[in-house]
Amino acid sequence: MANRKAAVKRIKTSEKKRVANSSIKSKVKTEISKVRKLVETNQEEAQKLLPTAISAIDKACKKGILHKNTASRKKSRLLHAINSAAKK
CA–CA separation, 17 vs 33, rounded Å? Predict the structure, then answer.
């Protein structure tokens, strides 16, 4: 356990941030999985949901939850999956 007041406060704030960040990360993962499921079955629906997934990724990046390169990689992989499925 923490010995100082400042350490106790830091523990409390870091816990609040962890909970908030995990909910945002979960939303990003959910949006990505929705698009990935539709890529294989319904191309048009996947393309309609793509902007919401990209928006969620960008918001997480803007808030500092995802690193900019991670966000870029996730968007690139989503676009690549949709484009490669469209070619088939």
Answer: 24
CA–CA gap between residue 27 and residue 4 (Å, rounded): 35
User: How far apart are alpha carbons 53 and 47 in whole angstroms?
Assistant: 10
pLDDT for 25-43, tens place per residue? Answer: 999 999 999 999 999 888 8
Task: Report if pTM > 0.85.
Answer: yes
Go through the domains of the chain in sequence order and give each one's CATH number: 25-87 (1.20.58.110)
Contact by Cβ (8 Å): 58, 71: yes
Give Rg (Cα) of the chain: 17
Residue 65 sits at the vertex; the CA angle it makes with 62 and 66, to the nearest 5 degrees, is: 80
3-state DSSP call for residue 2? Answer: coil
